[in-house]
Amino acid sequence: MNMSWKGVMPAMTTKFTDDDRLDLKMFEVNLKAQMKAGVDALILGGSLGEASTLLEEEKSVLTRAAVDMVDGKIPIVVNIAEQATKAAMNAAETAEQDGASGLMILPPMRYKADDRETVTYFQEIAKSTSLPIMIYNNPVDYKIHVTLEMFEELLKYDNIQAVKESTRDTTNITRLINRFGDRLKILGGVDTLALECLVMGADGWVAGLVCAFPEETVAIYRLVKAGRIDEAAAIFRWFLPLLELDINPKLVQNIKLAEVATGIGTENVRAPRLPLAGEERAQVLSIIENGMKTRPKLPDYLNL
């Protein structure tokens, strides 16, 4: 399936049973809710998907299951976050064999590669696969900044096509557009900045709270692209306290608790993570409960 790198792409949570196995039944419940809401692709195995805790065979099971569930209707993108170039190339090969339509790739993990090493890392992966690639640029969390000059080198490879822009600097959207035009697709990667990114010309939104609130997320995107900014902003203002749950060290637990509230997930996380407890849990529940009580009525966003 061709990747267009636009629209809403949920960074899917990974569902677990009470005995810590993959919960493919609940995963399918959530996946169907995403598709019904109108998302444009699904991203598996990101930080929100607890990828660092998944066994390699579990990643393959999850990818193959998702490919079967979407039945060719939307693309499946697999995240790659590895320490070694060789391991990343192997992961790309496995994702392709499992039926993925694209890859989202982080810079090398743990080792803080310099610019030359980072560019070479991405280039070697690009040469090893026919799948289209989105670079995940998140210097705040992962300490490596993919600069405009680095993208100049990376875009010599046709299958490097997009960036998940998570620098927290919304002016970077304009810099990227000015420098690369339509050659590099841009997807906002920070929930609380998504509206600004879309208004400034981002092609899409790699979203987190979409896992619990898919309709509201897609509505914001579709309204912006239809030029109905005021309506999108009104929904976004309601959404912001919930979106802030994504910019938190316990984003996985927060978002899974929100999925419970909307009926499309469970709280189960994989150790060393534990479900929220005590005052921390109460505060998050208060935000979620208020959001549920004040949930806005949406326009017919799928037919704009």
From TrEMBL:
Keyword set, alphabetical order: Lyase
CDD domains: DHDPS-like
SMART domains hit by this protein: DHDPS
Entries under InterPro entries matching the protein: Aldolase_TIM, DapA-like
Gene3D superfamilies (alphabetical): Aldolase class I
Listed Pfam families: DHDPS (PF00701)
Family from the record: Belongs to the DapA family.
Name of the molecule in the record: Dihydrodipicolinate synthase family protein
